[in-house]
Amino acid sequence: MPDPASFTDEENWSGGFYELSIELGDLDHQGLQRALTALWRAASIDGCYGSRDHEPGEQAEVPCTVSSLATFGHLRGTVHLPNGHRVVCGCVILGGDEDPEWLDFYLPLGALARVDPRIGGFPFDSRSGEDSLVWRRPLDDWLAAVGTTIFREVPFRLGLIGFETERRHLLRTARRHRTGTALGGISAAGW
Predict the structure, then answer these.
(1) Buried/exposed 107-130: b ≥16 CB within 10 Å, e otherwise
(2) Cα separation of the two ends of the chain
């Protein structure tokens, strides 16, 4: 059976991402570091690695820092899901310059589907509507708890949970630039 916690198995990283995406706003370097540290602690992420080209045992851990994130683009580890299975995960900072920065914690659907066959071809198959809430609800609740823990340490503007959430905030940014007003946020967690 394939290992959903294997870094080098490309199938684990396929299918898109189920995410907790947090709009951090204009935090300074120290604020970004506090948010990154809070994420690693709140999600109980095992390890911190700069590459998915080697298994964790074949590469040195990197410091869980904004500097490492800038160097490698993504930081990766493994995490135990609410169902007890361990899968690969990662994070990246999106935005910047004129747009707000987002801390994006992601779980690849390829790895998730290996531990729960109900995930199937989410969000593109016939079971992606209400049927998907059976497996999504515990994941959403867990990601909401992670976001709530981060918020207690580093207040943020908005948290989004779901499939490829960065598309939502890119759309939000595009609408803001087009209309001149900011749109309200959407959150599965209801922060």
Answers:
(1) bbbbbbbbbbeebbebbeeeeeee
(2) 38
8 A C-beta contact, residue 101 and residue 91: no
Residue given tokens 């490309």 in the structure block: 10
Which residue type is seen at 188? A
SS3 129: coil
Q: What pLDDT, on a 0 to 100 scale, did the predictor assign at position 166?
A: 62
CA pair distance 54, 67, nearest whole angstrom: 21
Specify whether the CB–CB gap between 79 and 100 falls below 8 A: no
Q: What angle do CA 144, 149, 152 make, to 5 degrees?
A: 125
Query: Is the pLDDT confidence value at 178 over 80?
Result: no
Tally the C-alpha atoms within 13 A of residue 118's C-alpha that lie toward its C-beta: 11
Query: What are the strands of the beta sheet with 158-163, ordered from one edge?
Result: 46-49, 75-80, 86-96, 99-108, 17-25, 158-163
Residues in the chain: 191
